[in-house]
Design brief:
binds iron/sulfur cluster; 11 helices; two-stranded antiparallel ribbon; globular; twelve-stranded mixed beta sheet; 14 strands; binds S-adenosylmethionine; 348 residues
């Protein structure tokens, strides 16, 4: 019998029925914020005096594993661990180790994370060993002083060392850069050139009106349509049709031979192909990054320690309420943000 005549692997045969929302979208991508804490205080993300959740409210590593595994049992194929800063979460590697069993069984296609990279040098080898293949690292400037100002104290050299360590460990790194009118607008071409020179994709993100921060976001909002126009004045941008499971649209820059992504929640609505939901570190499931609609999964998790039935039922019920899309617009001066929770609570 040739290998092609073999029966399908068990995991393949027993693939669960995927979660489908009321608009027919298959939801098979879960982003999990494993902590609301962070070692940085990026100006667009957190207030300088950010207060954090009491420990009792935060799910334990075992609870996070159980919740993520319930999603995997309901057809989730991709898990992204984020935060706050995921590498600041005590027991983070234990969680990755536990979840990696789903990669080995074939139930999960990808286990990945978004990190600020400050502790990546410490973690890179273990992450690669446990089956992580790709990760996103957020870098908003390659100028050490600007980086320190935007992150309120971050050390760029630490992050660059982390990126190098990740590449040395065989991990594919993508850079995430929030476009900031005052802080990095002029630097963006240089950052793209640097990333592509290192063999890294880079994705630009528009600032989203999420959470109360100290600064006025209208001062920093930079539409990516404007950035794209500028880049097109000296580079050739060829749109790529490849569909990753994220919200970015990609182009290839012919001169640098690298990929550049655009995440434009404000200038381009990306909801029609949304395949994801977000879980906070307290077990609240948000059905859309730009809406307040949510479901408490911690209660069924804690009230039924030995039985995942009620938890799965709560997940299915929540998915039946996933909204069609968001209605972001950058707030006018003094206006309240579209969504009051900070990004570090819901995860990027
Ligand atoms: N701490 C990690 C990091 O910075 O990569 C993971 C969590 S962070 C909330 C995830 C992503 O969200 C980062 O790329 C960050 O730049 C982005 N982000 C945070 N607040 C944002 C906002 N208001 N608008 C757009 N992107 C934001
Ligand atoms: Fe921390 Fe990431 Fe928010 Fe910056 S963007 S404050 S690194 S959670």
């Amino acid at each position: 019998m040739s290998p092609f005549d073999q029966p399908a692997p068990v995991a393949e045969a027993a693939r669960p029925v995927p979660l489908i929302d009321p608009f027919g979208r298959t939801v098979d991508y879960l982003r999990v914020s494993v902590t609301d804490r962070c070692d940085l205080r990026c100006v667009y993300c957190m207030s300088e005096r950010q207060t954090f959740l009491p420990k009792a409210e935060v799910l334990s590593i075992e609870e996070l594993d159980r919740l993520c595994s319930a999603f995997v049992a309901l057809g989730t194929r991709k898990l992204r661990l984020t935060g706050g800063e995921p590498l600041m979460r005590r027991g983070f590697l234990q969680l990755v180790e536990a979840l990696s069993r789903h990669l080995r069984s074939g139930a999960l296609d990808e286990l990945t994370l978004t990190t600020n990279g400050t502790r990546l040098a410490e973690f890179a080898l273990d992450l690669a060993r446990l089956g992580v293949r790709r990760l996103n690292v957020s870098v908003d400037s390659l100028d050490a002083d600007t980086y320190r100002r935007v992150t309120r104290g971050g050390e760029l050299s630490q992050v660059l060392a982390g990126i190098q360590a990740a590449q040395d460990a065989g991990l594919k790194v993508k850079i995430n850069t929030v476009a900031l009118k005052a802080d990095n607008a002029r630097e963006l071409p240089r950052m793209i050139d640097w990333a592509h020179g290192q063999g890294l994709d880079l994705t630009l993100i528009e600032t989203m009106p999420i959470g109360e921060v100290d600064e006025d976001r209208t001062d920093q909002y930079l539409p990516l349509s404007v950035v794209r126009q500028q880049l097109e004045s000296f580079w050739t941008l060829t749109p790529l049709v490849d569909h990753t499971s994220g919200p970015a649209r990609y182009v290839r820059i012919e001169e640098t031979q690298g990929r550049l992504g655009f995440i434009t929640p404000l200038t381009h609505n990306f909801c029609e192909s949304c395949n994801r939901v977000r879980l906070t570190c307290t077990g609240t499931l948000y059905l859309c990054l730009g809406q307040e609609d949510c479901a408490d999964l911690r209660a069924p998790l804690r009230e039924h320690p030995g039985d995942d039935g009620p938890l799965r039922e709560a997940i299915r019920e929540a998915l039946s309420r996933k909204p069609k899309g968001h209605d972001f617009r950058i707030e006018r001066r003094g206006e309240r943000p579209a969504v009051s929770r900070v990004m570090s609570t819901t995860g990027g």
